[in-house]
Design brief:
alpha/beta; Methane Monooxygenase Hydroxylase, Chain G, domain 1; polyphosphate kinase like; Endonuclease, Chain A; 3 domains; ten-stranded mixed sheet; eight-stranded mixed sheet; globular
Length: 705
């Protein structure tokens, strides 16, 4: 796909680059060296990603198209061309997906695990399957007959449906029923038959029982065709907080269920007359919205297929200063910072930190931001327990975290009932930064203990996302975090920060200064490098700054997981190297390394390089000041760069991405695990000035110190 130009610079649409990332997920599913359970997991991830892409990105493109030429004011590529390119990629990948799907199930059949449908159920198992249908399935099915007056435009898009066609002597009728995957498993394992494990879709169990389901109607031939549709998932809020935000969220969630349809998938074998009836009833547009497919949809459920031979869960590695320590975590942090590398290190170290804060008689308060919480959040329970122990607890709950709005609102209610002070978002800003601050009385003064993370305080995702978490007793960083919470509570004045850079106030200008310093160093013959790891990079200004840095002789290396709008290659008359890693764990951390003329600077962040992260979210980038931790992060980054097994070179066309090469295979996630497991416990003293300088503030401003 060719790049366009935005503000005169080469710029690839983020939709096309994101689809290229999802294609890399599909490549993992095609890897026959993986256990079939892992391959099915990647198919499920691909399908789930694509559903969200339609709900958010395709819906946004269509809104932009409706703007006409006004989209140019938003500094974006032509949405019509982007939509055309995106649909071309999706169509190509659909054929690849189907081929991988059939290949995996052929491999499973060799392992005596067979996926069957309602027509291939062995006769000895008919009675068992009918009993399952009557006892488990039938009570949850309530068909809707499709008549002239029937309207389906308010039908929710989360479930899957079967469109049933009934016939007898030329008479015909239609019905629609929901497949109840919210209460029943999508895949059901039948009793073993002749040494084989037989698995059947819930869809096909319903097809098996259709005659009994419609026994009261005068029809004797039944056929069912799967359909699913996707609605625009955007929820818009104004900044008028006089109306309850709880009510706005609830209203927005209801609106999401009746938002404009952006896609309908259907079984390609459905009769044309039945398809037209459904399209009319659902008020769907013809053309690109209506997409033929296979017999089954919602294949994100493949992540739950009962396949043998999955990979064992990651066993946490001992941390060099936190594991097995008998002394207080606070005492440990007084001597040295701690850096967790998730998921290799255990998230429980953070839970231990909260537990100690809850029990410590000298701790007066805990303040924390929460963007996405686990459904049964141990973090939330720890905070509620701390409140019950008399601590002053403040939680910033972000109510507009997409697809987690309802869960966050529910936790906000639980917090308030427990006496926790809840800050329900900030008007005009989505708070995405991950910060926790504990205040402890020591020697007559308040001291701060801080935790900053690239990922959510969420024990569920911490098990399969790669992130970094800093635990520190640096007082100046603690003062900055306290200033951030002052802003959350009373946001009439921007936070005054010395070490953290915060969007939308100083993060963009900080990046400008850091990039400019590397350009100046390159011109003066000093060490100059920009080495970034991000989930997404699609900000026009940052893209242009990277081009300028590369032209000036700065070595630019980028590890970008998903959206990537930089155009690389020799044709640009400068060198920017870019790679992407897709492996067992989702790469999620954001790391910014700068050579700085031989005095390296290192930052971690919650922010990707997208316009929204710089301009309409509260984000933070925080410095790693301990030189040994800087070297630790550099080691992790270099191992990722050297990956030649799960890494792809991002080229100028995206569809022609190539695998990295090397004489000795190196898979970075395995190499990082091996390297961390070999690290021995050590006593590291602080690299930043201690203890005197930690009492005051740095006098410098601008880029993070």
């Amino acid at each position: 796909m060719k790049a366009t130009r935005v503000d005169g610079i080469p710029f690839r649409s983020k939709e096309v680059s994101w689809l290229a990332f999802n294609s890399r997920v599909l490549q993992e599913a095609a890897d026959s060296s993986l256990p079939v359970a892992e391959r099915l997991k990647f198919l499920g991830i691909y399908s789930n990603n694509l559903d969200e892409f339609f709900r958010v990105r395709i819906a946004t493109l269509r809104r932009l198209i409706e703007l006409g030429r006004d989209y140019r004011k938003l500094r974006l590529p032509d949405p019509k061309q982007t939509l055309k390119d995106a649909m071309q990629i999706i169509k190509y990948d659909a054929a690849v997906f189907d081929a991988i799907y059939h290949d995996i199930f052929r491999a499973l059949k060799k392992q005596q695990v067979e996926l069957i449908n309602e027509t291939s159920v062995p006769r000895p198992l008919w009675e068992w399957l009918l009993n399952y249908f009557f006892e488990k399935v039938r009570p949850h099915i309530m068909p809707v007959m499709l008549r002239s007056y029937t309207r389906l435009d308010h039908l929710p898009d989360g479930p899957m449906y079967l469109a049933v066609e009934m016939r007898k002597f030329g008479r015909k009728a239609h019905a629609l029923l929901e497949i109840p995957t919210n209460v029943l498993p999508r895949f059901v394992t039948l009793p073993q038959h002749k040494g084989r494990t037989l698995v059947i879709y819930l869809d096909d169990i319903i097809r098996f029982g259709l005659p009994s389901l419609f026994a009261a109607l005068p029809y004797d031939e039944f056929k069912a065709y799967a359909i699913k549709f996707t609605r625009d998932a955007e929820i818009e809020f104004d900044d008028d907080f006089t109306e309850s935000l709880y009510d706005k969220i609830a209203e927005g969630l209801r609106a999401r269920q009746t938002g404009r349809p952006v896609r309908m998938n259907y079984d390609a074998t459905i009769p044309k007359a039945s398809l037209k009836l459904l399209v009319d009833k659902l008020d769907l547009a013809e053309g690109g919205t209506v997409i033929p497919g296979m017999r089954y949809h919602n294949r994100r459920d493949l992540m739950k297929f009962p396949a043998p031979g999955g990979l064992a869960p990651q066993r946490p590695l001992p941390h060099d200063i936190l594991s097995g320590a008998r002394e207080s975590i606070f005492r440990t942090l007084q001597d040295r910072d701690a850096l967790l590398h998730l998921p290799w290190h255990s998230f429980s170290h953070f839970l231990d930190f909260l537990r100690e804060a809850s029990l410590d008689q000298w701790v007066s308060s805990i303040q924390i931001t929460q963007y996405r919480l686990a459904r049964n959040s141990a973090v939330a329970r720890a905070l509620i327990s701390a409140a019950q122990n008399g601590k002053d607890i403040t939680v910033l709950v972000e109510p507009r975290a997409r697809f987690d709005e309802e869960n966050n609102i529910n936790w906000a209610h639980h917090y308030q009932q427990a006496g926790v002070r809840v800050i329900l978002g900030v008007p005009g800003l989505k708070v995405h930064s991950k910060m926790c601050l504990v205040t402890r009385r020591e020697s007559g003064i308040n001291r701060y203990y801080s935790v900053l993370s690239t990922g959510n305080f969420n024990e569920d995702t911490a098990g399969f996302y790669t992130d970094h978490m800093l635990l520190t007793a640096n007082q100046e960083i603690g003062e900055d975090i306290a200033e951030c919470f002052r802003f959350f509570a009373s946001n009439w004045q921007p936070p005054q920060l010395r070490h953290l850079a915060a969007a939308p106030f100083t993060l963009r200008s900080a990046m400008r200064e850091l990039f400019a310093a590397e350009i100046a160093n390159a011109k003066d013959g000093r060490d100059a490098e920009i080495f970034l790891k991000l989930n997404n990079l699609a900000d026009p200004e940052i893209t242009n700054l990277l081009y300028k840095a590369a032209r000036a002789g700065v070595r630019v290396r980028l590890i970008v997981r998903s959206m990537f709008s930089v155009v690389t290659g020799n044709k640009q008359k400068f060198s920017i190297e870019a790679r992407s890693v897709v492996d067992r764990y989702l790469e999620h951390s954001r790391v910014f390394l700068f050579a700085n003329g031989g005095k390296p600077r290192c930052f971690l962040s919650s922010a990707d390089f997208l316009p929204r992260n710089f301009d309409s979210r509260f984000e933070t980038a925080f410095p790693i000041q301990d030189s040994s931790l800087q070297m630790e992060l550099r080691k992790v980054m270099e191992l990722q760069w050297e990956d030649n097994v799960k890494s792809r070179v991002l080229d100028s066309h995206l569809r022609n991405e190539t695998a990295c090469t090397g004489k000795t295979p190196l898979r970075s996630q395995e190499a990082i695990c091996k390297w961390l497991s070999a690290k021995k416990p050590e006593l590291r003293k602080r690299a930043d000035p201690a203890p005197a300088a930690r009492k005051g503030r740095s006098a410098s401003a601008g880029a993070p110190q």
